[in-house]
Design goal:
Length: 590
């Protein structure tokens, strides 16, 4: 295209910037004149000149009264039917009213009346762009030699070519825009976008680098380079662009946020933590970053740092129940049960997280041995959001609170409707187990396995119980191995397997077959240490480790594990002899 004498004005630059960001160019709306109330009288004045009706229309537009404004413009047009200006104003009013087809009729009439009016031609071009009518838009926006009538028209054509997938035409217009601009940066950005849409990514990057030679610190161009790299899946290239920006603009907020997003997408947790900490340090009011750090530290199991961020965030956003809920979870993981109870209790009824908060409260009170309060909390959760797991949990708590018959009756009632439900059979087994009615518990668990051979929890219960009793050790091991195949990273099932090996070793030691026994103990120790890692520490696992070390005659390690088990609040029903073991071993060592 030949360069015309037009130079980029500020308006054209802004129009192109808006188009490059994916929006539509704003239609010209003219100045809005505020009608000064003349003499009292009716608004419709047939004898008044058309200028009066135009002022009335502007006044209605200023107040958002679009229908009244259109009526006023139409009255003005009746008085002066050959006014291109009034036709254009009416067309623009119809656009505002969402009536583009009618708008186009009046815009075309305005163009007939004044073919050289640039504003009208751009309006017509915009209306045809809305219809994706490229040929008609070009007729309005190009001169006789095929050159855009103005930079604003060129920017509009560029966007039309992009939207209609005419990449080569978009390239041609973008190059023209660079030649007519006082500040050609927007033209370079347009040209790079056109190269990208035609698959010429190398040329796109080269164009943006050329723009940076003209304006080395232009953040818009750097951002476009980063987006281009991201679109190609070039993570290293995107990171490199952010590094360039941060070298020019240290601690630049938006760039650091974009870098953190890339790092998180690439599972670079350490890098994301470092970047977000830099944002937190330089922009302490950015609560979004604070809460993101809280979640990242939670995933990294750095619970004190996670709690600190959540508390900071809640001090600024006290109504965010989701973050409050996670704060309670973090405090539970830190062993701060009283603090967790206070946090969960602060989540209001009706909140999206209220039912789960009450469920967490039920677990916390159960762990404290306050079964009645735990039952109250789970019943509140059930009233808000009834679910099958909560119903089953409520039955277990009812039994623990002393209403064994009520718990069994509730579950048996459900079982009558679904006699083959292995989950119900399993939970009945749990209720009988909690009541120390082991044989009946085993009966229900074996029925659950009959209905579902892949019920890992029932398999583990039966296998572990047999191991505790020293019975059926071959079958116990096979059940537990099957459960572990179903849940290979379940630390409690792994503990059961370790305990089977321990129980195999013990009678061998007692009969003097120490070499055979040691092989089983080595296997037991391997599994129990893995269980300790996966559970994050459990009193039963620690006691089992203590028993194993004691049988291996490693008394110091046995004592250490017994002490750890005691410090973790033992489960009385499962560990009735723990304190006795600890005290006896302490006396022996001392």
């Amino acid at each position: 295209m030949r360069a015309r004498t037009h130079r980029f004005g500020r308006v054209a630059m802004l129009v192109l910037a808006a188009l490059l960001l994916g929006g539509c160019a704003l239609l010209p709306i003219g100045r809005q004149a505020k009608l000064r109330d003349p003499d009292p009288g009716p608004e419709v004045r047939p004898t008044a000149p058309p200028e009066y009706d135009i002022l009335v229309a502007h006044d209605h537009q200023a107040r958002g009264e679009l229908d009244e404004a259109l009526a006023a413009f139409e009255r003005a047009l009746e008085k002066d039917p050959d006014s291109a200006y009034i036709e254009r104003k009416l067309a623009m009013g119809l656009i505002r009213a969402g009536r583009p087809a009618e708008s186009l009729q009046h815009a075309e009439r305005a163009l007939q009346l004044d073919p050289d009016d640039e504003k009208t031609r751009i309006l017509v071009g915009q209306l045809y762009r809305m219809q994706r009518n490229v040929a008609a838009a070009e007729k309005a926006l190009l001169d006789e030699s095929g050159v855009p009538i103005s930079p604003e028209a060129g920017a509009l054509l560029f966007q039309l070519y992009v939207e209609s997938d005419r990449g080569e035409r978009a390239i041609e217009v973008a190059k023209w825009l660079i030649t007519v601009a006082d500040d050609p940066i927007e033209g370079y950005a347009a040209l790079a976008k056109a190269y990208e849409m035609t698959g010429q990514t190398d040329k796109a990057d080269a164009t943006l680098r050329e723009a940076l030679e003209r304006d080395p610190e232009n953040l818009q161009i750097y951002s476009q380079l980063a987006r281009s790299a991201r679109a190609r899946g070039d993570v290293d290239g995107e990171r490199a662009v952010y590094a360039e920006i941060l070298k020019l603009h240290p601690h630049h907020h938006a760039t650091l946020l974009a870098l953190a997003d890339v790092q998180l997408a690439e599972n670079d947790q350490a890098g994301a933590l470092q970047t977000l900490r830099e944002i937190e340090s330089n922009y302490p009011d950015d609560m979004r970053t604070v809460v993101r750090l809280g979640f990242l530290y939670y995933e990294a199991e750095n619970f004190p740092e996670s709690a600190r961020r959540f508390e900071t965030y809640l001090a600024n956003e006290p109504g965010d129940d989701e973050v409050r809920f996670f704060l309670g979870i973090v405090q539970r993981r830190m062993g701060e049960d009283d603090a967790a109870i206070a946090v969960f209790s602060a989540i209001p009824e009706g909140s999206e997280h209220s039912a789960e908060a009450h469920t967490q409260l039920a677990v916390l009170y159960e762990e404290k041995g306050d079964y009645n309060r735990a039952l109250e909390e789970i019943q509140v959760a059930l009233a808000e959001k009834p679910t099958r797991p909560r119903e089953l949990y409520a039955a277990t708590l009812r039994a623990k609170a002393g209403d064994f018959d009520g718990a069994v009756a509730f579950l048996e009632g459900l079982l009558l409707k679904n006699p083959n439900d292995d989950e119900l059979l399993f939970n009945l087994g749990v209720v009988f187990s909690e009541a120390h009615r082991t044989q009946e518990a085993l009966d229900y668990m074996e029925r659950a396995i009959e209905q579902n051979p892949n019920n890992a929890s029932a398999l583990n219960y039966v296998g572990y119980t047999w191991a505790e009793q020293g019975d059926n050790l071959d079958l116990a091991e096979s059940y537990i191995v099957r459960a572990l195949d179903l849940r290979p990273d379940d630390g409690f099932i792994i503990d059961s397997l370790g305990w089977v090996y321990y129980m195999r070793a013990r009678p061998l030691f007692e009969t003097g077959r120490s070499e055979e026994a040691k092989k089983y103990l080595d296997r037991a120790l391997k599994e129990l240490l893995r269980a300790q890692e996966l559970t994050g520490g459990d009193p039963v696992v620690s006691e089992h480790l203590g028993d194993t070390y004691l049988l291996l005659d490693q008394k110091d390690r046995a004592l250490q594990n017994y002490r750890e088990a005691v410090e973790m609040t033992p489960r009385e029903g499962e560990q009735p002899n723990l304190l006795q073991k600890l005290e006896a071993l302490q006396r022996e060592i001392e």
